[in-house]
UniProtKB/TrEMBL annotation:
Entry protein name: N-acetyltransferase
PANTHER family: BSR4717 PROTEIN (PTHR31435:SF10), PROTEIN NATD1 (PTHR31435)
Location of the N-acetyltransferase domain: 6-95
Species this chain originates from: Streptomyces gelaticus
Membrane-spanning intervals of the chain: none
Domain of life of the native organism: Bacteria
Length: 104
């Protein structure tokens, strides 16, 4: 099964599901949500899924969902911040006045 990113608002995190049956949590990105902003605070991937690009898929899925919801992104998490830095097409999600603070 192809990995899929799902929002788990009850846990305040996005999860990437993978494995043979698509039910194993391969990683997650924790967030804090306000009315118009989503602050990513921690991202983690399960070592069993290392080297499969799960972190990038998770970041892309979470950021695509934030864009679809019209949310501004505050990338406090070093992984999400670094991923945005490598994919500048996502930098517009970070409010322009805050980009320098995040090194973007």
């Amino acid at each position: 099964m192809e990995p899929q990113v799902v929002n788990r608002p009850e846990k305040s995190r996005y999860e990437i599901l993978a494995g043979d049956d698509g039910t194993e949590t391969a990683g997650f990105a924790e967030y804090r949500l306000s009315e118009s902003e989503i602050a990513f605070i921690h991202t983690e991937t399960d070592p069993r899924f290392a080297g499969r690009g799960m972190g990038g898929l998770l970041a892309r899925g979470a950021l695509d969902d934030a864009r679809a919801r019209g949310l501004h992104v505050l990338p406090y998490c070093p992984f999400i911040r670094g991923w945005i830095g490598k994919h500048p097409e996502y930098s517009d999600l970070v409010p322009e006045a805050r980009r320098a603070h995040f090194g973007l």
